[in-house]
Write a structure and sequence with these properties.
Layout lengths: L2 H14 L1 H25 L6 H16 L9 H8 L5 H38 L6 H15 L3 H17 L4 H31 L1 H9 L5 H8 L1 H25 L1
Helix pairs in contact: 1-5, 2-5, 3-5, 3-7, 5-6, 5-7, 5-11, 7-8, 7-11, 8-9
Length: 250
């Protein structure tokens, strides 16, 4: 495996996807600009936190779902598979670009939006520009996205796997798969509730359900969710590499 080859493959992705990246950057910058303006006017650096987290997770998942865009047509897929590089190098280049590249892009657009918003706020409010406002906005990104890093990594790794495995309509098929997982989780939830009701009775069950620690399975799952997300995400990235190697072997 060559780091230089991975670098060349990432540069190729930047060139091939440059138009998508430009439009995505413009959209994120404009959206985050209005969020930053709202935070400055309300003097609440946690304002619209949920929206920013939603934006970070959803767009990141969608962006990663187009990782193996070459597989959409036979000609592009053949050209990609014939690139003189190892399967591992190709897979790592995709993972770095579509997972960590999105994180970098989001932070860059946040920085640009924060600077512009701080300048605009100083002009519109009649106050002079202050670095305190700008630095407050820049620092607030950590409270916005850090709690979701494990979750977005998990979803992005699933999207990359779907893009490699399903080839066409990857995001649609991934959505259906996630819904099935949610249904399984809901079934497990109902099973534990029914066991609890049968064991202690309806009244006591309601009291115990009000205390999440008594709700053993899902409480323990919540405690280790971040670690599980990272572990499963790494596994899915590994499976994507195996799937790519299998495709090249055909």
């Amino acid at each position: 495996m060559s780091i230089h080859t991975i670098y060349i493959l990432i540069k190729r992705e930047l060139y091939e996807r440059r138009q998508n990246l430009i439009w995505l950057s413009i959209f994120c910058t404009l959206t985050l600009f209005f969020v930053c303006q709202r935070r400055l006017y309300t003097a609440d650096m946690n304002n619209a936190n949920g929206f920013i987290q939603f934006l970070f997770v959803v767009i990141g998942t969608y962006f990663s779902g187009a990782a193996f865009w070459e597989f959409g047509t036979v000609a592009k897929m053949r050209s990609f598979l014939l690139i003189p590089a190892e399967s591992l190098e190709k897979a790592l280049a995709k993972i770095v670009f579509y997972i960590f590249g999105w994180w970098v892009l989001f932070v860059i657009t946040w920085i640009i939006a924060s600077v512009i918003a701080a300048i605009a706020f100083g002009i519109l409010s009649g106050n002079s520009f202050t670095f305190a406002n700008m630095f407050s906005l820049l620092a607030s990104i950590f409270s916005s996205i850090l709690p979701n890093v494990a979750g977005v990594f998990f979803l992005q790794s699933l999207s990359i796997f779907a893009s490699c495995y399903f080839k066409k309509s990857a995001l649609t098929k991934l959505t259906v798969s996630i819904l099935l997982i949610v249904l399984v989780a809901a079934a497990l939830f109902m099973i534990e509730v029914s066991i609890l009701v049968n064991h202690v009775g309806p009244a006591m069950a309601v009291a115990k359900l009000a205390r999440s620690k008594d709700f053993t399975f899902f409480y323990k799952m919540r405690e280790v969710a971040g670690i599980l997300y990272f572990i499963i995400g790494i596994i899915m990235c590994g499976i994507s590499y195996l799937r790519l190697r299998e495709t090249e072997a055909r």
